Amino acid sequence: MAATKDPRPCSIADALAVVGEKYSLLVLREVCLGNSRFDQLVRNIGAPRDVLATRLRRLVDAGLLTKRAYQDRPQRFEYRATQAGLDLEPVLMSLMAWGDRHLRGDDDRPMVIEHSCGNELLPVVTCAACGAEVRHEDLTAHPQAPGWTVKGPTAA
Amino acid sequence: MAATKDPRPCSIADALAVVGEKYSLLVLREVCLGNSRFDQLVRNIGAPRDVLATRLRRLVDAGLLTKRAYQDRPQRFEYRATQAGLDLEPVLMSLMAWGDRHLRGDDDRPMVIEHSCGNELLPVVTCAACGAEVRHEDLTAHPQAPGWTVKGPTAA
DNA sequence: TCGCGTGGGTTGGAAAAACAAACCCTCGCC
DNA sequence: GGCGAGGGTTTGTTTTTCCAACCCACGCGA
Questions:
Q1: Contact state of B45 with A131 under an 8 Å Cβ cutoff
Q2: Residue B22 CB closer than 7 angstroms to strand D?
Q3: Taking burial as the number of CB atoms within 10 A of a residue's CB, which of A52, A133, A146, B92 is the most buried?
């Protein structure tokens, strides 16, 4: 996924250049769940083996995963998330919450996450400064680079 | 991007089936910023026009965008986010924050977002129940459907 | 010792997507 | 009457994806 052409310098585009290819985020999901082996990933994600191999190389190169042998003779490898990879988990959680809300009946959630506070996790993106939930209407963009257009009201 | 084969019922996969194709999230970014016209999108995203046209159709069909004429004679259209689309913006913001942190020197952020509280937005994913920041080590997955493997420690 | 199964991939060829450039149509304006 | 903007579609080429088959090292059981 080329960042090479995005005319807008943007960390969203940069992030997608790393994790935006098909299956990459599902790999992260699996690894965060603790499934670290090639076959488990193939089975749980449903990706073709060659594509998965490509994605894994990419994610390792990008520093989101590590590959290490969990046995020699025969050599077998496992993939684990680095801190950068783990830091994506909250993003995945909020994406999951969006999917639960907008793509499902909300009562057939295929996975419930428990938070250490004892409650079911309902992820909310908040502003670190004031603690309020982040909503579109409270945001104002300030591009730091030229070549941008930012405009008025954006809702339908 | 097929959800058709993902063997795991999962809202992350479902969400990616809708917005996981190349450029889709960048379209959302632009629309949330207020850039609603085909050309602006082409220029700001850097996508081929035909691909963009395909993405826009998909996003409209999925209910994340609306297409409506902003003038007749000649007919011209604009794309705006629905509530479902706007609800993805916090996810984009946390993805952007991840990119800022892990992909950049953190001091050359290409865009700063201002929150209505007056501070610069630093998005944090929190647990709605307890208000704490969501971290990997505080989460436990509870699959609601069969065919899952979930395992022990997941960090590198 | 022979064959079988498992884990972790690689290879080859066909099908689907992305890409770039050119094209089209409707109009407003000079 | 020609030019340019806006919003796409068409055409042909280049990449990716996909699938199935294959490979290799080993452990095991008969």
A1: no
A2: no
A3: B92
Are B96 and B67 found together in one domain?
A: no
Say which amino acid occupies B83: Q
Same domain as B97, residue B75:
no
Q: Is B30 found in the same domain as B15? A: yes
A44 and A8 together in one domain:
yes
Looking at the structure, do residues B25 and B97 belong to the same domain, yes or no?
no
Q: What is the mean pLDDT of each run of 10 residues along chain A (156 residues)?
A: 64 98 98 97 97 98 97 92 98 98 88 97 98 98 75 60
Over the range A29-68, which residues count as b (16 or more CB within 10 Å of their CB) and which as e?
bbbbbbbbbeebbbbbbbbeeeebeebbebbeebebbbee
Across the interface, of A10, A26, A87, the residue whose CB is closest to B13 is A26
- Strand nucleotide closest to residue A4 (CA to C1'): C19
What Å value separates CA A9 and C1' C26?
Answer: 35
Measure in Å the smallest separation between the Cα of B26 and chain A Cα atoms.
7
